[in-house]
Amino acid sequence: MAALACIAQNDSQQLLDEIVQQEGLEYATEVVIARQFIARCYESDPLVVTLQYQDEDYGYGYRSETYNEFDLRLRKHLSLAEESCWQRCADKLIAALPGITKVRRPFIALILPEKPEIANELVGLECPRTHFHSKEWLKVVANDPTAVRKLEHYWSQDIFSDREASYMSHENHFGYAACAALLREQGLAAIPRLAMYAHKEDCGSLLVQINHPQVIRTLLLVADKNKPSLQRVAKYHKNFPHATLAALAELLALKEPPARPGNPIIEDKKLPAQQKARDEYWRTLLQTLMASQPQLAEEVMQWLSTQPQSVLKSYLSAPPKPVIDGTDNSNLPEILVSPPWRSKKKMTAPRLDLAPLELTPQVYWQPGEQERLAATEPARYFSTESLAQRMEQKSGRVVLQELGFGDDVWLFLNYILPGKLDAARNSLIVQWHYYQGRVEEILNGWNSPEAQLAEQALRSGHIEALINIWENDNYSRYRPEKSVWNLYLLAQLPREMALTFWLRINEKKHLFAGEDYFLSILGLDALPGLLLAFSHRPKETFPLILNFGATELALPVAHVWRRFAAQRDLARQWILQWPEHTASALIPLVFTKPSDNSEAALLALRLLYEQGHGELLQTVANRWQRTDVWSALEQLLKQGPMDIYPARIPKAPDFWHP
Question: Which PANTHER family does the entry mention (predicted)?
Answer without folding.
Answer: OUTER MEMBRANE LOLAB LIPOPROTEIN INSERTION APPARATUS, OUTER-MEMBRANE LIPOPROTEIN LOLB
